[in-house]
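Hello,

Our lab assistant flagged a job as stuck in the queue for most of the afternoon. It eventually completed. Since we weren't sure the result was trustworthy after the delay, we are filing this so someone can double-check. Below is the sequence as submitted and the structure that was eventually returned. Let us know if re-running is recommended.
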Amino acid sequence: MIWWLIPTIVVSVLIVLIIAIAFFMVNHVLRRALPIVSDDFSVLGKAGVLSEPVKEAVLWLETGEVIKQTSFDGLKLYARFLKNEDSHIYALCCHGYKNQRMQDISNQALHFYKMGYNVLCPHARGHGMSEGRYIGMGADERHDIVGWIKVITDMDPGAKIFLYGVSMGGATVMTTCGEKLPDNVRCAIEDCGYSSIWKQFSYHLLKTYRLPYRPILDLCQVISKRRYGFGFKEFSALEQIKKTTVPFMFIHGDKDTYVPYSMMEPLYMACSSKEKRAVSIAGAVHASSYWMDADTYWSEVEKWLERFL
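-- returned structure --
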């Protein structure tokens, strides 16, 4: 056998493997998992897989009025709206990755409603009732949330709005706050959001799959850019939060290993708002802070809202 044949085959196999992993990642992570619902607006998913408190909150949320907007790129986006009569305060709540029934924000939305606020919970693009063949991980969703803010101010020019989001929803809140927002947006709260798509995926390639993130993510960047119009490096929460003037609260569980707890401090330090606060919840894993220590969680959140609303 020619001496150079074996290393050539090995290199070729590695290249093919890297390309296959990159295409799988982009398709698996970003592509919509469930079909678009166009005529039937019943919410996707089975309530039976949810715990009772979450199920009750989800079913409550699904009693809300369905409202819609058309996105900057022509998608029909839908949200649930629950009106508190005589209130001009609006909680705009952003759910997390593949939460088709918005189950990760349903209890918080109910809490905000019981505080006397109006609640608007959008289905992110590629989720639930909203159209979209891909999930933007907060990159394109920032434009959608700006659109929902306009929907609220068109309904109520005197609206006082705060943004709230969990996980991918938290990242969406951060990327949104880097955009030019009306004065109606009084403050924002993010819970366990990641600092960037690139850092989140590189973390999981190394930790979960024991794979080097380069050159896999470099190739993912190219594929995502060509297929969906955004790359993993664009519009990171860390870069967007550097541009915000919105009062901002960061919350993260110190046992979170899905979106690592270590991401909160760089985000807090990068935030350019004059009013900012970081809250650590002891013992909480990913997206569980409001369950792990509800007293601390809601005490901090309510004091924050009282300051700016």
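-- support follow-up --
The delay was a queue issue, not a problem with the job. The result is valid. The chain has a mean pLDDT of 90. The longest strand covers residues 76-82.
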